[in-house]
Amino acid sequence: MTSQRAYDWHLSVQTRMIDPHYFHASSNPSGVRGAVRADKGWKWPNIYWWTRAFAFAGEWPGILSWCIELVGRKPSTPPIGMLTVAPTFEANIHGEISDRSFAWYLSAAPAQLYGELGMQGARDVTKVLVDIAIQTRLDMARDAAILLHADPKGGAKLHEFYSSLGMQVLDDNGGARLSPLRPFKPGEYYVMDDAQSREFCSKFAQQR
User: Fold this and answer.
1) What is the pLDDT of residues 162-180, one digit of tens each?
2) Cα-flanking dihedrals φ and ψ of residue 77, to 5°?
């Protein structure tokens, strides 16, 4: 991802398609599950520069940002998926300190974008983003273990989705922090070990 692509998303997708039409789970007046998105209000240009700052400071080695592009479209066409990942994030999980890929921020474009482009919606974009987070770590010749943050503003639908991928939610961490800079919050983090992550990624092998 470049800073320009982060701005393209912000101007064409975030401020036009997400922020005006979706709600956080705690403030959804309609009660319609499809009207909830955790990424309402996110500012991807800021997220991009936070990522660069963390990388420069050496806090999270290898942290970077990815975006998914539509092939054959004009350069001005916004991305359809956004991701920040720290592939060697050192976490304390159930008293065991080890590094794993940390999927920090993820966003997939809403259906409105595909409608405006006159095309069918791309399938499994969020799953592909998770796959990218794992592959980023595998490219460093490490195992495939992953940690993912699920913002509670996404509500039950978001948690059900990550559970459907084979991830396990962390409801308790024995009172320990996740890392020196990140407190543990019950129900906000999901994990897959090496074997589980490789099984998940195998579904996308032919598309890679």
Assistant:
1) 999 999 999 999 889 999 8
2) -65, 125
In this structure, is the dihedral angle defined by the CA atoms of residues 137, 143, 149 and 155, taken in order, positive or negative? Answer: positive
Q: Is the pTM of this model over 0.70?
A: yes
CA distance 124 to 130: 10
- Tell me the pLDDT tens digit for each residue of 137-155: 999 999 999 999 999 999 9
- The token pair at 61 is 């080695």
Q: Are 81 and 109 in contact (CB under 8 A)?
A: yes
Strand order, beta sheet including 146-149: 64-68, 81-93, 96-108, 146-149, 189-192, 168-169
Percent of the chain predicted with pLDDT > 90 = 80
CA distance 129 to 154: 17
59 contacts 89 by C-beta, under 8 angstroms: no
| One CATH from 3.40.50.300, 3.90.740.10, 3.40.630.30, 3.40.50.720 for 3-207 | 3.40.630.30
What gap in Å lies between CA 161 and CA 127, rounded to an integer? Answer: 10
